[in-house]
């Protein structure tokens, strides 16, 4: 009965051994293969156990690994077991793969090492995956540092996990300051907010990103230094709609805005004098008229012509003529309010729009303009006189006249005044 039980136990063991889902190899004390299971044959591309049994363990390993394997057999004999040692193994067809090996010594009844049992775990896929991840991480890091933007990445708990050098430079953060695991909200709101000109706008941007984690946020922020930057924050959403955190971009657009303003100025300003050009100025004037009508307030329009400008040009040259145009424009800008409109219609003709200004008030303003020009002429002793002729027309709230009608009426008044001056 005991013999039958032994046979049964051997059959059960053999069955379990062969069905084991991990390659298992039994070696004798001299490191020769005495047994292996089906998974071992599959992994090493052998058809039957007979092809392996009796052969030295080295047949399964790349030659550079032989010395390491001998050492680990020795360690297993002394320590009982060595775990998860990475090896480069090979198949019958000489194809290589990476596996982790655990070697355990087998002892007889006398306590002597009679063999070894090894478990293989193919980690080729894992290692290739790790290699691919390292490559991707390296590529991302290079892109991270080469990016024009200051970048910081946070996890789902708003903790900083990555940032580039530009982020430190942009905010003036010292390299020795440890930012990883810092709460991005604490950094942006408590420390960096001091560098922002309009704190409310900046805080609203941050709070919105914190409150609506799956929302993309974008804002233009001005620093106290005068720099202008564009802030962009977007969620990192993975498969199955899982939220992993946010990526924050900060891009310096100061130069871009400066160029944009210059281009805008070229489109709206007269190149010589800096006041509004005819095309833009007339649109601006129309808007002021409509605004005054809505608010039921008066507005005065003034048509200006520089007296004897042609003579100045002809006798003293265009350079001197340009100087007169710029001086008149400068005087107008210094005397009038920000809400007033100054338009160079062309040549030596200007148009003024004075919202919230009656005809009588406009006369007072005009007196100040004339006084400034007279003071300049008396000081500089130019060989010509800088004088202006003007024509005023008042726009009443209930008046339905067009801008052209007002300009024409103001132009007529200007010529009346010019003729009066000549006849004196």
Structure characterization notes:
This protein is of the alpha+beta class. The chain has three domains: 2-123, 2-Layer Sandwich (Beta-Lactamase), CATH 3.30.450.20; 147-256, PAS domain (Beta-Lactamase); 269-423, Reverse transcriptase/Diguanylate cyclase domain (Alpha-Beta Plaits, 2-Layer Sandwich). It is 45% helix and 25% strand. It is built from 13 helices and 14 strands. A five-stranded antiparallel beta sheet has the order 2-1-5-4-3, sandwiched between helices. Strands 7-6-10-9-8 form a five-stranded antiparallel beta sheet, sandwiched between helices. Helix 10 (309-316) packs across helix 11 and helix 11 (318-335) packs across helix 12.
Structural class estimated from helices and strands: alpha+beta
Indicate the multimeric state: single chain
Query: pLDDT below 50 for ≥5 consecutive residues: which ranges?
Result: 3-9
**Count of helical segments?**
13
Spell the H/E element sequence: HEEHHEEEHEEHHHEEEHHEHHEEHEH
CATH class of the largest domain: Alpha Beta
Shape: rod-shaped
**Rg, please?**
44 Å
Q: Work out the helicity level.
A: 40-55%
Q: Give a quick account of the main beta sheet: strands, pairing sense, barrel closure.
A: 5 strands, antiparallel
Q: What is the CATH homology-level superfamily of the largest domain?
A: Reverse transcriptase/Diguanylate cyclase domain
Strand order of the largest sheet: 2-1-5-4-3
Proportion of residues in extended strands: 25-35%
Count of folded domains: 3
Shape-level CATH architecture of the largest domain? 2-Layer Sandwich
Distance between the termini: 148 Å
The average pLDDT score comes to 87
Task: Could you tell me the CATH topology label of the largest domain.
Answer: Alpha-Beta Plaits
Number of strands: 14
